[in-house]
From TrEMBL:
It comes from Caenorhabditis japonica. GO terms for molecular function: G protein-coupled receptor binding; G-protein beta/gamma-subunit complex binding; GTP binding; GTPase activity; metal ion binding. One of its GO terms (biological process) is adenylate cyclase-modulating G protein-coupled receptor signaling pathway. This is Uncharacterized protein. The keyword Metal-binding applies. SMART domains: G_alpha (SM00275). GO terms for cellular component: cytoplasm; heterotrimeric G-protein complex. It comes from the Eukaryota. Keywords: GTP-binding, Lipoprotein, Magnesium, Metal-binding, Myristate, Nucleotide-binding, Palmitate, Transducer. GTP binds at residues 27-30, 86.
Length: 114
């Protein structure tokens, strides 16, 4: 997880992505939920600063999202987080629709039409 965070930091702060929105996919949410909720594990193994309760999926996910958002040098940068399970085709379709909507909205705003 920490390697992923470091890579995200390099990408999001790259000069080529200064003026772009970013979509962050937190995949395998089903496996994460199984470990956090069903096995009552905490994410303190990967994130020492986490002080939320073990077994609380929402608190763990919010903490991880906050960690990813915090590595952006530009705190105003649009970072859209999606929790996904790639084997859930309905969820993947929903996420892809949301991504398409984000892209279209951005382009329309750029043209002054939104």
């Amino acid at each position: 997880m920490l390697e992923s965070l470091q890579l995200f930091k390099q990408v999001i702060n790259n000069k080529y992505f200064v003026n772009t929105s970013v979509i962050l996919f937190l995949n395998k949410i089903d496996l994460f939920e199984e470990k956090i909720v069903k096995k009552k594990r905490s994410i303190t193994i990967a994130f020492e600063g986490y002080s939320g309760p073990a077994g609380d999926l929402d608190a763990a996910v919010k903490f991880i999202e906050k960690k990813y958002r915090s590595v952006a040098d530009n705190k105003e940068k649009n970072i859209y987080c999606h929790h996904t399970c790639a084997t859930d085709t309905q969820q993947v379709q929903y996420v892809l629709d949301a991504v398409l909507d984000t892209i279209l909205s951005s382009k329309l705003k750029g043209c002054g039409l939104y």
